[in-house]
Amino acid sequence: MNTKPPFRLDELDAGHPLRQHPFEATGQGVPDQYFDTLASRVQARIVEQRKHEESHVGPLISWSWGRTVASLVGAGLVATLVYVTWPQRQETIGRESLSGVSDAAIVAYLDEQGLNPDDLATTPAADASIMDDSTTIQYLDLKPDAIRQYLDMQNIDLEQLKSDS
Amino acid sequence: MTDKELLEKYRDPSSRNYAFNLMVKMYQQKIYWHIRKMVIDHDDTDDLVQDTFVKVWASLEQFRGDSQLYTWIYRIATNECLNFLNKKRRRFFLPIGDVEGELMEKLETNADYVTSGNDPSGEEIQLVLQKALLKLPDKQRLVFNMKYFDDMKYEEISQITGTSVGALKASYHLAVKKIEDFLTNR
Q: Can you give the pTM of this predicted structure?
């Protein structure tokens, strides 16, 4: 059981040790003549600070080896990261890539994708023939009357065309 | 010399240094002990006192006289103290208890008393109070110091800390209660 009477700070008289200045009571004063010289030391610091500010009027960032090396290392790191993480360009599949695949496997794959191998085989031939104007007209399967009607609608003189050609 | 006279001399370039020296001499002891009670160590206190007066010099031109000069200087010193203690914690990622432990160590190292027998000396009792104070949060310790040791009015402390008088009264009451409990149960 705690029989100590409660401690009351406001009941202490003025001479009580706990009323004294804390550091003087424990012998932790200040060095001799500290306060005599403080004002002059503060003034000296102000003068030094002013000189420092005046001598540093110029570019905000000055050149230094450390800063240069750090910048180069940083730039190198960024370049390496970009090189390592840049996505590889997908090249088209060459003939040699498909040389190891059997025809049956290719046909089965095209069937799966809903593509008819016969259509694929005729498409390049059709594309090549369309490049020529005369064959294009053959593919369109137009009757001479239809061509004549179209030229009339466009006000193109058929005789003129013949003499020009 | 009144604040007004001091400031007039400061604004006159021919007497600026004289006025500033006078001001440092007027307030140096109060500011020193105000800071010392918070940071304990003399060297840290010396740095912070000088920083305080360098800032006073730099911003005295802007002082409008809305408050008394000494409460304005106290406010700068108080901010310097709190920033110093916060920086100390941040720099070493220290929890509150570790900074408190460091200050406690400095307190004991600096004390030049000899432990007596049955009856504790005044120095020992004072050291116990200082240890109890280090258990308080920084701002509560600050309020306690200004009220208990410096006998400042709540209104003055309010101007220095920017805290309302009501909150200061509650904070001081709580601080006194904690210290009394510590001293009773030690």
A: 0.63
